[in-house]
Structures are given as structure tokens and as C-alpha cells.
Amino acid sequence: MGSEPAVNHRELTDEELMARYQKADEPSFTELVRRYKSRLVNTAYRVVNDYDKAQDVAQETFLRVHRNAHRYRNIAKFSTWIYTIALNVARNELRNTKRKRLVSLDSFGSAQDAESDRTTYEIPDESARPDDDTHNTQLRAIFEKAIAELPVRYRTVFVLRDVQGLSYEEIATVLNMPKGTVKSRMNRARQRFRELIEPIVGTNND
Length: 206
Hints:
The chain has eight helices and two strands, in the order ααααββαααα. The chain is mainly alpha-helical. Helix 2 (26-48) packs across helix 4, helix 5 (134-149) runs antiparallel to helix 8 and helix 6 (152-163) packs across helix 8. It starts with 13 loop residues before the first helix and ends with a helix.
């Protein structure tokens, strides 16, 4: 019998990787960690406002994925499943601590939201990040502080939509709430975000 041909795990979908991991293919789990570690840390940080604890949240999330891999079914996107786990862990962490510490974003870029005229924000891979000039560094600090000041119920939706780029349907699934509620919170989050940054950004641009 011939051996199984070599698999390039980076070419597989999240769902294919999870299916292989359920059959004890360890490299598949390693690839999932590579894909999601930074995203989970970034998301968790904006919930708990503490970078070290955000890393703990990401680690605990992957541990739960490992423990519950047998429960995953390919009827839902893997990204939705793992974000649901991560936010549950982050909320538990938030209940245990209210410490807030400001750190800068890895990077800030902009992309146009396909469902509105708003601006969304994405965080590129740090390995591909050029050196930032002083102005961009200041803007990142302003955005970071504004996100941290949003109420948690708005901040979570804002991060999932405008930072991580999830669809409204995916966010509704992750947060277990109606799509209309997600959109309502998103509108309030964006309004409050603009109120926080416009006086500062407007002054800086004069």
C-alpha cells in the first residue's frame, strides 16, 4: 500500500483542517493556531483591555478547541465557532478583572465596508508591516484608546465587524443575538467611535 501523498496544510480551508485534526492530524491544528492566534489576541485584547490577559484568552481558546474538537461539525464556519469560544473566555476574564492598559495596535490599515459607507479597520500581519511614521503611530493610539472606551456591548460588535471583518450574520451567530440587534449596536458603536476620535483627528488634521 502506498503512503498518503504529502499535504500542504496552508492550502486547506479551516474546515478541512479541522476535519483532519479530528482524525489526529497534529499539523492541521498547528496551522489553525498559525492562522488565528494573532486575530484572537487582537480581539480578546479589545474586550479585556490587557494584552497579557488577551494572550491567555487565546491560549485557553485553543485549549478548548483541542478538548472539544470532536464536537465540531462542518455545518458552521470554523471561524464563527472559534470566535464564539474566544469571546466566552474573554467575557469570563473580564468578569475577573477590570484592569485597563493601553497598548498600540500592530498596525492600522483601512478598507471599505461592503455593506455601508463606513470605514473599517484591519490589522495586517506584523511581519509585512512597514515602519510607521509618527503621524500613523499617533492615529493608532487614538483609535486604540477610542475602542477601549466603547461600552463592552458595543465594543465587541465593533471589533468583530470593523476590525476582524466578520459579516453581520456571523456576528449574530457568535453573540447569539438577532441580526437586527447586531446592526443596531454596530450603528451605536460607530457613532460613539466617531464622537471620540473626530475632535482629536480633526484637530490634528487642521
